[in-house]
Every structure is written in structure tokens, then in C-alpha cells.
Known about the structure:
This protein is mainly beta.
Amino acid sequence: xxxxxxxGFALVNARSGAVVAERITLANRWWSRLRGLIGRRRLxxxxxxxxxxxxAIHTLGMRFAIDALFLDRxxxxxxxxxxxxxxxxxxxxxxxxxxxxxxxxxxxxxGLEAGVTLRLVPRSDG
Length: 126
């Protein structure tokens, strides 16, 4: 997958089949990972930013809080962090390969926690 919007993919809980996000943006280059969500006013429900490779994030320059999931190479959640406030350095999760940034409340809404496997799948409408 290249960098940028991935309209044809959704992030799905492999166990329950619940669609966690249906609008995925991939940040897989140095600049896109560094910039992340800076400059955005919000992250809407159903949106997600997937950073890779990534094991640490910052919210410096951001205007809003986010939920963050740290995943291993098999897309298994290693750490779930709720409501990371703007202007913070971290959190960090050594060994993570992906970080998924989501709107606040997504982790709680979908019961996401360490050990849950996610999948990036083609959307049926996409």
C-alpha cells in the first residue's frame, strides 16, 4: 500500500467482524508519519490514520485528543491508549510495527484491548 487515503479498505476486528474504521489513511513514509494528523481540526468517526513502521507517537501541534492502538506485525493489539491529549510526547510501545490513530471513544466503543487482532480488508462498497 502506498501513502495516502485508502478509500477501498476498512479496519475490522478479526474476532467480532465489527468495522472499527471505514476510511483509512496510511502514513508509511518519514514525512507522512511525522506530520500525522497535524493541521487537522478533527478525526471523524470511522476515520483512522495507520502509521508504519511505528512504535511511538506524539501529538505536538495537534488540536484534538486521539485514541491510539499499537499493533505487532500480525496486527495484534499490543497496547491500547485512550484519549491521548494534544501537545504530548508519547506514548511508546517497543516492538510495535503499526500505530492506528482513531477518534476518542473508539477503543471503548469497540472493546479494543491487548490481544485483539485487527485486519485491513477491502470494503464491500469500495
